[in-house]
Amino acid sequence: MLSRIRVGSGLTVVAVALAMCTAGASAAPAAGASGVGDPYYPYAGNGGYHASHYDVRLTYDPATDLLKGTTTILARTTQELSSFDLDFGLHTNSILVNNVPAKFHSDPKENGELVVVPAAPLKAGQDITVVVAYADTPSKVVIDGYTAWKKTPDGALGVDEPQNSQWWYPANDHPTDKATFDISVEVPDNVVALSNGTFQGNAKLRTGWTWWRWRSRVPETTYSTTLEVGAFQVKQATTPDGKPFITAYDPTLGESADAATASVERTPEIDGFLATQFGPYPFEAEGGVVSNGLNFALEAQTRPVYSGKFFAKGSNTSVIAHENAHQWFGDDVSLGRWSDIWLNEGFASYAEYLWAEHEGEGTAAELAQYVYDSHPADDKLWKVLPGDPGADKQFDDAVYDRGAVALQALRTRVGDDAFFKILRTWVVEHRGGAARIDDFIALSERVSGKSLRDLFTTWLFTVGKPAVGPNGSAMT
Ligand code: ARG
Ligand code: ZN
Question: Which positions carry the signal peptide feature in this UniProt record (predicted)?
């Protein structure tokens, strides 16, 4: 299902390279590139500018799935621009650039690109304010064969990875361009509208409707922003260290409701444990949303979203540890390219082992060893490369499980002190930004003083079951 965004053709790469060559040249201002050059998703993000803040202000009616409003983007150009792209799939009514109407055109069904042509070319290094007004029914919008917006019986979910923002706000949609967000959504009184960060209060401007206002002050990736509308039961509390802790439960969880609550309400305890492993929790709030409207979980910054299915058989704190570990690995330190997905999923999966060990449910070494031993050499786990799985296998078990076992192998090679120092230094050096697998390998070698290329090549970039297990030959 992830094949919806075409993997790069030679032509696209040439187009990006040409755009880069002309940038800064004294010739006529160039069009901003239609992507940042991501090998898996050539149209993800855009060239020629960086966004610093989004103000997303919407009205949503669950009865009709009509979503309308404006998004105001604060950005700065990085080159002279005759035009630039936004990643967006909804019907756009008007665009202003620095308060002047701009022309725009798009073929959203093709690739989600909205091309904006300002009345006059933009200078390099110029601050710009872009106001996009739009209205559409997102559940009917198909981009490259896929619809990420999830209509539910009483609302909708704007939750997905690697793309979800195109169905509810225009953006520079790539993890390398993080920004702060104010998200405010007006919905009928019988439902709530949840998003990331801190709750800024409700506002009422007309009978029957209520605004819900949310703010994220720590830079956030676009895929990690979420919108959940529905008749959720909302709980507001405070973490032991004084942060807002907001959780929300789908009223249709039925028999799973108690198990979901018994898991998600432990989030501050779990984040407290993860902080002892990775360094301080990075954000201004904690929480969680449980919904039957999706069948996966996602590490929405400050407020992960969980499918109700994770709690169908009882409590499940593994998934809470996983999604909250992503607050460090994925949300605070984000992917340089989508091909680096191991930095998210391998690390969050390893955090599940650490949490299990803390709970007395086996050591990380034992859990990694079990994955290694229980998958014979011909198992498909060993056929996908965690370090470069391909766009259609981005969320393959190999990225998660082989990826986590790889971290145990690193731990065995460098020792506990160096291993945890590597993890913590990684967060300190890249917080608020994005980084790549090569950066992690270089850091591991720097901190441990060991040559580790062979280990990473074996565990991340070689097809086949590694001959030596994650705890060395002693345990195999
Ligand atoms: N990052 C999510 C996780 O923590 C996976 C999201 C998978 N995406 C999807 N559309 N199924 O596991
Ligand atoms: Zn994950």
Answer: 1-27
User: In degrees rounded to 5, what are phi and psi of residue 71?
Assistant: -120, 130
- The ligand minimizing its distance to the Cα of 4 is 1
Ligand nearest to the CA of 352: 2
Q: Which ligand 1 atom lies nearest to the CA of residue 148?
A: 10
* Distance from C-alpha of 195 to C-alpha of 58, rounded to nearest angstrom: 12
- What are 63's two structure tokens? 């009865």
Measure the CA–CA gap between 388 and 276, rounded to whole angstroms.
30
pTM of the model: 0.94
ipTM value? 0.97
Concatenated DSSP letters of 375-413: S-TTSGGGTS-TTS--GGGTT-HIIIIIHHHHHHHHHHH
DSSP letters spanning 298-315: B--TTS-EEEGGGGTTS-
- Residues whose beta carbon lies within 6 Å of some atom of ligand 1: 160-161, 296-299, 322-323, 326, 348, 395
Centre of ligand 2 to C-alpha 82, Å, is 39
Token output for 346: 């391998």
Which residue bears the tokens 């790889």? Answer: 406
Q: List, for residues 335-373, the tens digit of each pLDDT value.
A: 999 999 999 999 999 999 999 999 999 999 999 999 999
Q: Which atom of ligand 1 is nearest to the CA of 400?
A: 12
DSSP annotation of 171 reads B
Question: What does the pLDDT look like over 189-200, one tens digit per residue?
Answer: 999 999 999 999
